[in-house]
Amino acid sequence: MTEIIEAEKLKQMINKIETIEQERLESSDLLKESFNEAKSMGFDVKIIKHVLKLRKKDKDALAEEDNLIDLYRGALGI
Amino acid sequence: MTEIIEAEKLKQMINKIETIEQERLESSDLLKESFNEAKSMGFDVKIIKHVLKLRKKDKDALAEEDNLIDLYRGALGI
Amino acid sequence: MTEIIEAEKLKQMINKIETIEQERLESSDLLKESFNEAKSMGFDVKIIKHVLKLRKKDKDALAEEDNLIDLYRGALGI
Amino acid sequence: MTEIIEAEKLKQMINKIETIEQERLESSDLLKESFNEAKSMGFDVKIIKHVLKLRKKDKDALAEEDNLIDLYRGALGI
User: Fold this and answer.
1) Residue B65, burial from CB neighbour count under 10 angstroms (0-12, 13-18, 19+)
2) CB C39 within 8 A of CB D1
3) What backbone torsions phi and psi does residue C67 show, to the nearest 5 degrees?
4) Could you tell me if B45 lies within 8 Å of chain A, comparing CB atoms?
5) Each residue of A40-61: pLDDT tens digit?
6) With the C-alpha atoms ordered A32, A38, A39, A40, is the resulting torsion angle positive or negative?
7) From the centroid of its chain, how far is CA B56?
8) Which Pfam families does the annotation name (chains A, B, C, D) (predicted)?
């Protein structure tokens, strides 16, 4: 990379990235609001986050995982 | 929290959260694309990420930080 | 903080911290080796990490969590 | 992986991992203590963490990085 850079192109790229970062930040804020709303409705946010992860898993993979967890928990007496 | 929950309300909340998570994921993908684009233009992505952080700092705080870093680096010979 | 710092004290502190960081790094490497060993013995590392977390929880809290997870999973059909 | 696991071997592995995790936790606590000590001596912990990262870099790579940061900051007026 040569020691000089195209300042104008860098500025455009930085502005573009900052705009997208801002949108992502807004989504994160919306998520926080939703979790607070869920909490105010009496839901357990930690459990909601847990089931959100489970919903992203393939059904068979989840069933296999459930089996293994039961197996390991049984062996360890947890 | 009683042992029974309002399944319908939980489903609505989960769907709402998953929609926002999806939007955030799309922003993250857009960010990745932008960094790849910057790289293809010859920019150093690690440096871009560094200056993005600096741009979020208050000017005086950044000047103070620069001073301290120079002071510590001088003392340690880095 | 005055603009001058006690370079000698800073060096001592940095060395002390780097020594502890090194010890922590060695523990992390040992952990990786153990997980690899567990994998080679046919254990599922992801499940091992999951049950390690469960073992750190208080028994009653874990039982309550298990109940809630079953309740939420039932409501959502997962 | 067969549905049955060797419970005894699993217990041994879990105990081994928990011992190492405990050692790592102790290192992390020692690190926190050191940073608190540095703070009480008037050092800026955030700057200490920054220079700790710089010290881990190869001298030439660090010099190159410094150049690029100056170049990008100049182009962006930061």
Assistant:
1) middle
2) no
3) -60, -50
4) no
5) 999 999 999 999 999 999 999 9
6) positive
7) 11
8) GapR_DNA-bd
Would you say residue C44 has pLDDT above 90? yes
Q: How many CA atoms lie within 13 A of B49 on its CB side?
A: 9
The packing angle between helices C7-40 and D7-40, to 10°, is 170
User: Per residue of chain B (78 residues), what is the pLDDT tens digit?
Assistant: 455 789 999 999 999 999 999 999 999 999 999 999 999 999 999 999 999 999 999 999 999 999 999 999 999 999
Q: How many angstroms separate the CA atoms of B50 and D57, rounded? A: 16
List pLDDT tens digits, range D21-44: 999 999 999 999 999 999 999 999
Amino acid identity, residue C49?
A: K
- pLDDT for D5 equals 80
Helix (H) or strand (E) holding C57, with range, is none
Distance CA B55, CA B61 (A): 11
Q: What six digits make up the tokens of A28?
A: 């994160």
- The token pair at A68 is 């293994």
Size of interface A-B (CB pairs under 8 A): 80
Q: Check if the interface score ipTM surpasses 0.95.
A: no
C10:B67 CB<8 A = no
Of D1, D28, D55, the CB nearest to C24: D28
- Nearest Cβ partner for A10 among D3, D11, D72: D72
Other Cβ atoms closer than 10 A to B48: 20
Contact A21 B38 (CB under 8 A): no
Distance from CA of D30 to the nearest CA of B (A): 22
Is C50 within 8 Å of A69 when comparing Cβ atoms? yes
- Beta carbons of A21 and B31 less than 8 angstroms apart: yes
| Dist. CA A47–CA D46, nearest whole Å | 34
User: Does the pLDDT at position C69 exceed 90?
Assistant: yes
